[in-house]
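Changelog-adjacent note: as of this version, every example in the card shows the full chain rather than a window. The one below runs 414 residues end to end.
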Amino acid sequence: MHRRTFLQAASAPLGLAAVNRFVPPVTDPVSGSVSGPAVHTTPRASVVVIGAGAFGGWTALHLREMGHAVTLLDAYGPGNSRATSGDETRQIRCGYGDRLLYARSAQRAMVAWHEREREFGVSLLNPTGRLQLAPDWTPSLRATQATLTTLAVPFEAMTTDDLRRRYPQMNPEGMGVGLLEPGALVIRAKQAMLAVSQAFQRKGGTLRISRAQPGTTDGGRLVDVRLDDGSRLAADSFVFACGPWLPKLFPALLRSRIQVPGRDVLYFGLPSGDQRLAFPNFPNYSEERYYGFASIDGRGFKVCPTTGTNSFDPDVDERIISATEVRRARAYLAQRFPSLAGQPITESRVCQLENTADEHFIIDRHPEMANVMIAGGGSGHGFKHGPVIGNYIAKRALGETTDGDFDHMVRLAR
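Full-length structure tokens:
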């Protein structure tokens, strides 16, 4: 086994360095607890954020901490079962192939998640590690190895024999390479979005459960949004960060740019008395066509086939798992994790992604409304970036300067 361990190094921020109106977290010298940034009492602008998920919820919180009057709208509420940011768990990992900007953002997000967990006073993070499996060294794995090296992120490269010794609960047949990122984490997703929403409200933000549609425009600017009850809500700026609902709100602009596939998420029970595939005894794992997590909080071993329906309506489609995907998952478990063969499904979810063709985010101004930001295209990897991307979106919405390379990567017109 070849082991490489690198010292952690600080990386450059995604946007500008913190500006004067940000107040850093304060550590209590007695309790050791960390409080979040102080909020200015004089609002500078009014902003409406539509969507309380990973992009919208964090954006609203950062805008409020900057001192702005912020209203956060969501049709079903933070952490709801229709949300792309729902389900029980998401992972943070820095392995991103050759996409250094995302890897750097994830590295910064890990730090931010730890700080916010202390501030929120809620247990959110599980230090699981992440294991990528492949028959051989692919260009993508080599690129991931190079990116982790550049960012000084610890990793281990393992052979089939290494995998057998380290993880006897897994059958590594056909897998010649294992790339382990031991610092990867699993986040309790729903609890995280509820904690963000609660912090936003504690700091003076307004949360409303209502669907919003673009309303009146005037002189190339959006004046207000139209709510379910027929009322209108005006603001200086608007951020539409509503994930799979974006193509519905802006069909001419986004229907060809964002696809909304559905995916089945299956949790399989562990054998009685056998905790070898429970956290912390096994890491997150991924290989071609499958990924998942060890059992966390006793929910079961998570298996996610990366296939499913190509078009999913988050409002009306039912969340019933497919018999085909169940058969595929069971066949996979029988091969890779034989102790789970025949174990029952203990929980299941049907979720949706919002994919762009190149799997880059879309974060940019609406081409016809200068005070409207579009933030979406999470493409299955957006959740982990929430604390960092929320700050980035907030700065973009306010017209502040941000990282030019990242701006270019997530531009609408690419």
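Structural remarks: The CA atoms of residues 89 and 188 lie 5 Å apart.
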